[in-house]
Amino acid sequence: MYIYYPSCNFATMHLQTAKKVRDYFEKQMPIAKCCKIDKREFEKGDIGLYVCQACRKQIENQVKTMSIWEYFDQLDNFDFPDYHGQKMYLQDCFRDRNHPEVHQAVRSLLKKMNIEVIEMKNNKDNSIFCGTLHYETKDLDDIHLSHYHKEIQERYMQEYVQQFYDKQIVCVCNRCLKGILLGKGNGVHLLELLFNKK
Q1: To 10 degrees, what angle do helices 150-161 and 174-182 make?
Q2: What is the pTM for the complete model shown?
Q3: How far apart (Å, rounded) are the C-alpha atoms in residues 48 and 32?
């Protein structure tokens, strides 16, 4: 049985979309509480369906996990919106480096939505980015930008988003999106694309 773990961080940033996603999954499967407080007993064959990489880390030692992207990608009856060939950059998250199944599902979903992906140099398992949580740059000793003053965080995020030339940047991670937005980039979460043209 699937169990959907809604992301508290996503819900905070995208209240209306989070409600749409929750309403959708309530018709399909049980909805978990916050991953840090949900104490359910799992049965053999259960799968924890996650949006957030932090949720995955929290539950992966208790239950088999699957990203929400893999779940949607396997559906035959989902009404995918059509973005008519719009070109968008895709920001892979550093925390998904060892999850090629996520990379594959995300790209498949974007193709199903008629979005042309612009690949970055540091993509998939070479990603160096997770917003201010993780950013690999030769200029700083500490990869955790969140350890620096906000002015420094903003400056590095602004420099980072310059590579996107004002095009939309699809993120599958809340922290990645926060970093892109902090740098004044044109960021959007993939769930927003999936649910907000309906």
Answers
A1: 90
A2: 0.94
A3: 9
Q: Residue 93 in contact with residue 176, Cβ under 8 Å?
A: yes
* Secondary element (H or E) of residue 190: helix 190-195
Rounded to whole angstroms, what are the CA distances from 190 to 45, 110, 116, 143, 178?
A: 27, 9, 14, 25, 13
3-state secondary structure of 185: coil
State both tokens at 131: 């917003």
| Helix H or strand E segment including 171 | strand 169-171
Query: What digits encode the pLDDT tens for the residues 53-73?
Result: 999 999 999 999 999 999 999
From the CB of residue 88, how many other CB atoms can be counted at a distance below 10 Å? 20
106 is written with which tokens?
A: 């995300």
**Among candidates 162, 175, 179, 198, which has minimal Cα distance to 80?**
198
